[in-house]
Design brief:
Elements: H1 2-44, H2 46-55, H3 59-95, H4 104-130, H5 134-139
Helix pairs in contact: 1-4, 3-4
Length: about 140
């Protein structure tokens, strides 16, 4: 009986493992994309950030501003994406055994994970922005 049950569960377990791997790859691609977007934004705003530092902005203030902007961007995306995900999951959940389209716990965990990834991915460009020398920033461009 155990062998029969193991055979019956082999395909669902393989599919779940594949979906987990795809989710991890997707999260990595999203974090790399967010890192690139924030890095590009910081590079375009080098002059502005240099002026802020020259006027007296602290390193902590510059880092927090860049990180908050990235996290805010992801928060807006989540506000748009969560209702869409809920609507798309209803028909999909009918075909999956034992799944609920309104699994609030999963939506909250994934949202918090995305916000955390956004904060971590934007921290390195934010630190780079905070270390910009005002004189070098004003010479830029």
């Amino acid at each position: 009986m155990e062998d029969h049950l193991a055979q019956q569960l082999l395909m669902p377990q393989a599919c779940a493992s594949l979906l987990l791997a795809l989710g991890v790859v997707t999260m990595a691609i999203a974090s790399i994309g967010l890192f690139g977007l924030v890095s590009f934004s910081v590079a375009r705003r080098t002059r502005e950030i240099g002026i802020r530092v020259a006027v007296g902005a602290t390193t902590r203030r510059v880092v927090s501003q860049v990180v908050y902007q990235a996290v805010g961007l992801v928060a807006v995306a989540l506000l748009i994406g969560l209702p869409v995900a809920g609507a798309v999951m209803r028909p999909v959940a009918r075909g999956l055994v034992g799944s609920a389209s309104s699994d609030v716990f999963a939506y909250v965990v994934v949202s918090l994970l995305l916000l955390t990834v956004a904060a971590v991915a934007s921290f390195v460009p934010a630190r780079h922005a905070a270390r910009v020398s005002p004189s070098a920033a004003l010479r830029c461009e």
